[in-house]
């Protein structure tokens, strides 16, 4: 934990050194949410009934979708970006020269991005609450582990992307495919029930579907834990599977890179 | 196994090279690093055309060829060799960043493959390029980051960071952002980072490549102090610098195409190499006298070099019997009425040693 804390600290010092970037990153939170607020209010009469089972407030529905997308993007890309960035400079190989284990290194290298995203989504939630979103605060406590499982699932996919990068030096369109697929099939802007039936079956394999539905019911509706047990069970199973596959893929790819001597060759 | 035996034979063959001090016995000290038949090949990059023609056909280039050597505790072992000889790959295998295809390497008994984590706990490596630091934070914060990865905490961490910054003379600029450092300062930071964990084995890949001559000399002094007095750790140093090899190393090994061709004490290798090569500053009409000495068999040959002043000119002279031959040369020149200002043995360079060892090895390969 101490090692991870030091790695987060270093990342914060680096982020702080890019002053304008830090200011823009925070300011962007407020400005990018306003169009969603206006559009959601305009569409409330039509979408209110559609999202009835997930809170009934369309702006709240979309806001939680945006929060989930922020988290999944970070979970998906943080480890891959950390690995790709540190290979280019030889930084990864240098860190591997210490006795710190690979899991600690990977978590440490991506932890800052997670914490920063967590801060951003907290601000986003408070901002939404100030704009009238009805938030069940007790539901947030229950919703956090669900979002954590969602992150674990996408972190597993992220390890897969990092493995792909280690082996091929590219991830091709995979990041876009996963993020876009999750947005389209996972019910970020609309509930999965409105998706045409012929592709609705695909949404059952998208972790976002379960994670987001459960979180919305807990946070926006104030539903009890028992009401989302099925969804939580599914997301837990998918997260476990994806994490295991991600670890296996990364380990294979890492060993391949050590055999080929490409850990510090871009 | 057969290839391993062949490679071992090649290294043993090196002892018969015409270099008197090749492969001297190790001092009776425990072994710190033991490499036995290390083999590593990397795939050769192919053109699009070759890839399309045979997508699954991979050609390999041998980078270390059944390399075997022992390095004693506290020894400073230099690796010399042309670019692509396999020095960096050997370093990376010892640092556990590259897995060998065959053979074993152990550091203080821990295998670099099976006990990689234990090995990492014993080594400090400055084998990366100078970009492998965090540019947007200070040198002190860079070291703090690495100290955490090495498990150093609290006051011990702070003390150690200050010690290594002092050692590499960066204490005054410790708070400066590394991106504003000169190339040499970043190189020193890499060395400080390698020393941070008080390693038992230090791996340095061309540590002075970005240093100016004065900094390089300071580095050599620092290394001497570090190795001889302070830490007494074992050091493997890959270098192209004659000064480094000659001044610092207890032994040097010459690598080429992954083969360790010769191992010896640098002074012995150098002296043997230039045993009969002398530089002489001679007065007017020396050319005629030198021609006569060649005809009489006193010297093997001579050539005029660039050094000229008002009265004397510099010549490179090849004698027949080391210092005896040089004394004979001086006597003969004086007898011929040539003024002799100075005669000295020509200093050897790393390139000379490498060239000589490679040429001898090539001749032997051709004979075989």
Largest interface: A-B, 30 and 38 residues
> In terms of structural class, how would the helical and strand content of chain B be classed?
alpha/beta
CATH class of the domain at 275-345 in chain B: Alpha Beta
- Distance, first to last CA of chain A: 30 Å
The CATH superfamily label of the domain at 275-345 in chain B reads ACT domain
Query: Which range does the strand content of chain B fall in?
Result: 25-35%
Estimate percent helicity of chain B. 25-40%
CATH architecture of the domain at 275-345 in chain B: 2-Layer Sandwich
What percent strand of chain A? under 5%
List low-pLDDT spans of chain A.
none
Distance between the termini of chain B: 20 Å
Q: How many E strands of chain A?
A: 0
Radius of gyration of chain B, in angstroms, nearest whole number: 24 Å
As for the CATH topology of the domain at 275-345 in chain B, it is Alpha-Beta Plaits
Total number of domains of chain A: 1
Rounded mean pLDDT of chain A is 87
| Quaternary structure annotation | heterodimer
Structural class of chain A: mainly alpha
The description of the largest β-sheet of chain B is: 6 strands, mixed
List the helices and strands and how they pair.
The complex is a heterodimer of chains A (266) and B (368).
Chain A: H1 2-17, H2 19-50, H3 58-89, H4 91-96, H5 102-130, H6 137-168, H7 174-186, H8 197-203, H9 207-221, H10 229-260
Chain B: H1 2-14, E1 31-43, H2 48-53, E2 60-72, E3 76-80, H3 87-94, E4 102-107, E5 110-111, H4 116-120, E6 123-126, H5 139-149, H6 154-167, H7 183-195, E7 201-205, H8 213-230, E8 234-238, H9 242-248, E9 251-256, E10 259-264, H10 266-273, E11 277-282, H11 286-296, E12 299-308, E13 313-319, H12 322-335, E14 340-345, H13 350-367
Helix pairs in contact in B: 5-6, 6-7
Q: Explain this structure to me?
A:
- The complex is a heterodimer of chains A (266) and B (368).
- By secondary structure, chain A is mostly helical.
- Chain A has helices at residues 2-17, 19-50, 58-89, 91-96, 102-130, 137-168, 174-186, 197-203, 207-221, 229-260.
- Helix content of chain A is 80%, strand content 0%.
- Chain A has ten helices and no strands.
- Chain A has one domain (2-260).
- The model of chain A has no long low-confidence stretch (mean pLDDT 87).
- In chain B, the strands form three sheets. Chain B has a six-stranded mixed sheet with strand order 6-7-8-3-9-10, with helices on both faces. In chain B, strands 2-1-4-5 form a four-stranded antiparallel sheet, with helices on both faces. Chain B has a four-stranded antiparallel sheet with strand order 12-13-11-14.
- In chain B, helix 5 packs across helix 6.
- The two termini of chain B are 20 Å apart.
- Chain B is built from 13 helices and 14 strands.
- Chain B has helices at residues 2-14, 48-53, 87-94, 116-120, 139-149, 154-167, 183-195, 213-230, 242-248, 266-273, 286-296, 322-335, 350-367; strands at 31-43, 60-72, 76-80, 102-107, 110-111, 123-126, 201-205, 234-238, 251-256, 259-264, 277-282, 299-308, 313-319, 340-345.
- Chain B has a domain at 275-345: ACT domain (Alpha-Beta Plaits), CATH 3.30.70.260.
- With 368 residues, chain B is α/β, with parallel strands linked by helices.
- The chains are: A mainly alpha (266), B alpha/beta (368).
């Amino acid at each position: 934990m101490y090692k991870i804390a030091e790695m987060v600290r270093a990342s914060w010092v680096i982020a702080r050194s890019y002053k304008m970037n830090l200011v823009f990153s925070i300011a962007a939170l407020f400005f990018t949410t306003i169009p969603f607020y206006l559009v959601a209010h305009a569409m409330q009469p039509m979408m209110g009934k559609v999202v009835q089972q997930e809170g009934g407030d369309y702006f709240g529905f979309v806001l939680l979708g945006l929060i989930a997308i922020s988290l999944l993007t970070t979970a998906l890309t943080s480890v891959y970006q950390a690995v790709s960035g540190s290979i280019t400079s030889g930084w990864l190989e240098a860190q591997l020269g210490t006795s710190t284990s690979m899991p600690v290194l990977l978590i440490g290298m991506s932890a800052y991005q997670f914490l920063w995203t967590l801060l951003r989504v907290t601000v986003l939630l408070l901002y939404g609450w100030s704009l009238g979103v009805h938030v069940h605060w007790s539901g947030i406590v229950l919703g956090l582990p669900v979002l954590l499982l969602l992150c674990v699932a996408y972190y597993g996919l992220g390890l897969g992307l990092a493995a792909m990068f280690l082996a091929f030096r590219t991830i091709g369109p995979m990041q876009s495919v996963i993020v876009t697929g999750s947005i389209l099939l996972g019910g970020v802007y609309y509930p999965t029930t409105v998706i045409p039936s012929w592709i609705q079956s695909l949404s059952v394999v998208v972790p976002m579907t379960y994670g987001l539905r459960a979180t919305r019911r807990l946070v926006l509706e104030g539903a009890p834990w028992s009401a989302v047990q099925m969804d939580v069970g599914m997301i837990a199973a998918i997260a476990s599977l994806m994490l295991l596959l991600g670890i296996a893929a990364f380990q294979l790819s890492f060993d391949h890179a050590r055999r080929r001597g490409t850990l510090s060759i871009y | 196994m057969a290839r391993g035996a062949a490679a071992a034979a090649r290294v043993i063959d090196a002892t018969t090279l015409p270099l008197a001090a090749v492969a001297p016995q190790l001092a009776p000290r425990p072994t710190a690093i033991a490499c036995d038949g290390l083999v590593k090949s990397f795939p050769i990059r192919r053109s699009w055309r070759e890839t399309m023609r045979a997508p699954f056909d991979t050609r390999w280039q041998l980078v270390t060829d059944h390399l075997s050597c022992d390095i004693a505790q506290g020894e400073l072992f230099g690796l010399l060799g042309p670019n692509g000889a396999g020095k960096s790959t050997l370093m990376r295998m010892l640092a556990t960043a590259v897995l060998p295809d065959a053979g074993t390497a152990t550091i203080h008994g821990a295998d670099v493959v099976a006990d990689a984590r234990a090995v990492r706990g014993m080594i400090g490596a400055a084998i990366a390029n100078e970009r492998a630091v965090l540019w947007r934070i200070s040198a002190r914060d860079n070291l703090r980051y690495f100290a955490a990865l090495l498990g150093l905490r609290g006051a011990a961490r702070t003390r150690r960071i200050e010690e290594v910054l002092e050692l590499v003379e960066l204490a005054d600029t410790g708070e400066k952002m590394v991106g504003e450092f000169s190339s040499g300062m970043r190189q020193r930071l890499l060395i400080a980072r390698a020393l941070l964990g008080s390693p038992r084995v230090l791996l340095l890949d061309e540590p002075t490549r970005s240093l100016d001559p004065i900094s390089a000399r300071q580095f050599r002094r620092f290394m001497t102090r570090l190795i001889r007095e302070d830490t007494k750790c074992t050091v493997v140093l890959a270098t192209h610098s004659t000064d480094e090899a000659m001044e610092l190393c207890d032994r040097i090994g010459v690598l080429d195409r992954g083969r360790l061709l010769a191992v010896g004490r640098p002074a012995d290798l150098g002296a043997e190499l230039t045993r009969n090569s002398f530089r002489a500053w001679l007065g007017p009409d020396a050319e005629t006298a030198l021609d006569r000495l060649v005809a009489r068999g006193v010297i093997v040959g001579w050539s005029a070099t660039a050094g000229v002043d008002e009265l004397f000119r510099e010549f490179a002279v090849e004698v027949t019997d080391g210092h005896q031959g040089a004394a004979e040369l001086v006597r003969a020149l004086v007898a011929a009425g040539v003024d002799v200002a100075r005669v000295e043995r020509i200093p050897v360079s790393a390139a000379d040693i490498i060239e000589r060892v490679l040429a001898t090895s090539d001749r032997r390969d051709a004979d075989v």
